[in-house]
Amino acid sequence: MKCDICNETIEDLDDVMTYYGKNLCEDCYIGELHRPKPCDPMAVSSAKKNREMMGQSGTDGLTSLQKKIVEHLKQHGKATQPDIAEALNVPIGEVQTQFGVLRHMEIAKGTKVDGKVYMTLF
Q1: Where are the alpha helices (DSSP H) in the chain?
Q2: Number of Cβ within a 10 Å radius of residue 35
Q3: How many CB atoms lie within 10 A of CB 10?
């Protein structure tokens, strides 16, 4: 059986985890359970304070993927998470995780336009 997220073969069927109807390997299952929540006031406060204490602003201290997401949003103004995942050739789950982190730092936010949720810059 293959993991529905990473497409890796799961040899032992006892190792298959089911989450919202998806068959997942252990790594993807844990990733799904522990994704940062974008709307977390304590995480926002903590991230902002840490960046302030480290003298960081803009893209200072971001990972290369986070910087690519920010650059994509600068170029396009707004984009859906699936569009970003496709453009950067990364799994949608990784974009969702990084969006949570960027939201905590108040670098990116979500906005709904015509019923679709887009990522935009603050």
Answers
A1: 26-33, 41-53, 64-76, 81-88, 92-104
A2: 16
A3: 18
The domain ranges of the chain are 1-34, 36-121
Q: Which fold has domain 36-121?
A: Arc Repressor Mutant, subunit A (1.10.10)
pLDDT at 81 over 90: yes
Tell me if 38 sits within 8 A of 103, measured CB to CB: yes
Average pLDDT over residues 14-21: 89
Closest CA to 28 of 14, 12, 16, 37: 16
Residue type, 47: A
For residue 95, give every residue at least 6 positions away whose Cβ sits within 8 Å of its Cβ, in sequence order, or none.
69, 81, 82, 84, 85, 88
> How far is residue 20's CA from residue 110's CA, in Å, rounded to a whole number?
23
